[in-house]
Amino acid sequence: MAQNHVDVDTLLEDYAWRHFKDIQSLRKTRLDDFKNLEKEDVEFVLVSA
């Protein structure tokens, strides 16, 4: 029986990056400090409340 594994960290990072880029594309929220960031330049951290 074969098991399929999901890399949850990668899925969450991809989701967070897409969401971040979507927010940055909104005209009123575009900040010059973040405009030229690449995915490799950032770290996404999960924090539990």
What does this structure look like?
The chain has 49 residues and is mainly alpha-helical. It has a domain at 8-37. 45% of the residues lie in helices and 0% in strands. It contains 2 helices and no strands. The chain has helices at 8-25, 32-35. The longest helix has 18 residues, at 8-25. The N and C termini lie far apart (38 Å).
Strand content: under 5%
What's the mean pLDDT score?
79
Shape: elongated
Q: Spans of 5+ residues with little confidence (pLDDT < 50)? A: none
Span of the ends, CA to CA = 38 Å
The helix-and-strand class reads mainly alpha
The overall strand count is 0
Tally of helical runs: 2
Determine Rg (CA atoms, Å). 15 Å
Considering DSSP H and I runs of 4 or more, what fraction of the residues is helical?
A: 40-55%
SSE order, one letter for each helix or strand: HH
**In this structure, how is the largest beta sheet organized?**
none
Keywords:
0% strand; 45% helix; 49 residues; mainly alpha
In short:
It contains two helices and no strands. It has helices at residues 8-25, 32-35.
Describe the secondary-structure layout.
Blueprint: H1 8-25, H2 32-35
Organism: Gongylonema pulchrum
Protein name: Pyrin domain-containing protein
